[in-house]
Amino acid sequence: MWSFFARDPAKDFGYEVGELVPGLEDKSIWQLHKGKKKVSGQEVSIFVFELKGGNDVLLDTAKASVKRLKTLRHPNILQYIDSLETEKVVYLVTEYVEPLNQHLELSRKEEEKRLAVSWGLFQVAKGLGFLTIDCGLSHNNICLTSVFVDKAGEWKIGGVDYMCPATEAPPAKTLPSLDRYNPPELSGPSSGRAKPGPKWARDSWGLGCLIWEAFNGPLPKASALESPGKIPKPLSSAYSQLTNSTCNSRPSPNDIVTRCRSAGGFLKNSFVDTMLFIEEIQIKDSTAKNRFFAGLPAMMDNFPPNVCKYKILPQLINSFEFGDAGSSVLAPLFKIGRMLDADEYQKKIVPCVVKLFSSKDRATRARLLQQVDQFMDHLSPEVVNQEVFPHVVQGFSDTNPTIREQTVKAMVHMAPKLNYHNLNEEVMKHFARLQARDDQGGIRTNTTVCLGKIACHLHPQTRQKVLIVAFARAMRDPFHPSRMAAILALSATQGYFTLRDCASKVLPALCALTMDPEKTVRDHAFKAIKGFLGKTGEGV
């Protein structure tokens, strides 16, 4: 009985506390750890406060912070998941994030970083607008160490340890290192007599501090704010207004967003525009979506990879599965696919590819076949033979010449994964028909070219039975590029022919082309004959 009451409740905590994440150090009462949910393995972040030296004030601050975060729900505020409080420790479990200062230290291209910061500042400003104007709260601690970043590059407001109603005086900060972020009305000699400003005044100052740190690094002292340092010129005016010593002159976070989103503003760029479109994509019409997806691949070159993988990609997949985006999502989908590791590709891209192959939309099927080289390596032979090929093979008989031609070309990339039946029987049957009967000379030519390229994947008996017959047929084609393709394919595959076949079947067929009306065909025929004569001469 007594052992039950004496049991440490932390042992029943449903999360594993992992390694310490650097970045908070002396500017937070919390230590940040990586964590996992024991049951599901879900990645989380765990903020840990340990009571040391009997400082009950810090313990009360930690508990109040948990209580406050628990009640706040907003896309730009750190998401509370769970918590545990004991006499010695407080655990606060949130969505998986990393400290902003650590995120900004990651090496990346200058333009990529500028775009990431512009979107992050937009999000923090929107979050502060929600807190100060909608909720009537003052955060009182906006700085580099109170903002966190999730996997999708979303900036989240945390560090709510000193939050209070905007009409009340803020609580005293328990860490001296945070005093440098206090606005003049709270830190100057006349701070006690200062009249309260607008309800957003204190957090607008904090937003100014965050802007300074986003471009210059951790703030060494309050006076450093007097020099903008590396803050970009399009943002310098807004920064000066936010750090105005007169609290009544500071604009609200929402005003800053409006001003900076105007033409020429720091927040008016392709990245922020893209992020806002993505967030509103469910209410966009199909024309706007298709136009957006068409222009997206070119813009993504300067986008942070984590944003592409964890914010844009889920929306692309969602638009494909539940919307009317169709083939327009393919180009950005495959471009992001190149950023994924093998496991992520299997989970996120392959199911879409398989589903796309069953589409009745010709534009989708054509685009998919044109880009087959970008994803075929990621598909297993089982998936290719059982789920993809049954749909692809229908393209050989499609009434649209483009679909037929792209289906033929796709075999170059698909052949290594096809089983005996699909490659040596099904594909060869369709190739023979296309070579002999298709009314498009280009398709007949490409069939011959493709056959030469996939010959190495054919069964030896199939090669002996099919290749010479197919190439000889192509050498009689009235379309001269088809005859040329047959000569080149014969030369490329001569290693598969016996000396007897070379002498009795290949050379006679080539000799007939030495009288071809097209000079290029004659020239290639003579060159091929020379090569085959050399082969037969060596074998005698």
From TrEMBL:
Residues 173-198 are annotated as: Disordered. Keywords: Kinase, Transferase. One of its GO terms (molecular function) is protein kinase activity. InterPro entries: ARM-like (IPR011989), ARM-type_fold (IPR016024), CIK-Related_Protein (IPR051177), HEAT_type_2 (IPR021133), Kinase-like_dom_sf (IPR011009), Prot_kinase_dom (IPR000719). The keyword Transferase applies. HEAT repeats lie at residues 388-426. Residues 18-376 form the Protein kinase domain. Transmembrane segments: none annotated. It comes from the Eukaryota. Pfam families: Pkinase. Belongs to the protein kinase superfamily. Regulates COPI-mediated retrograde protein traffic at the interface between the Golgi apparatus and the endoplasmic reticulum. Involved in the maintenance of the Golgi apparatus morphology. This is N-terminal kinase-like protein. It comes from Ixodes ricinus. The lineage of its organism: Eukaryota, Metazoa, Ecdysozoa, Arthropoda, Chelicerata.
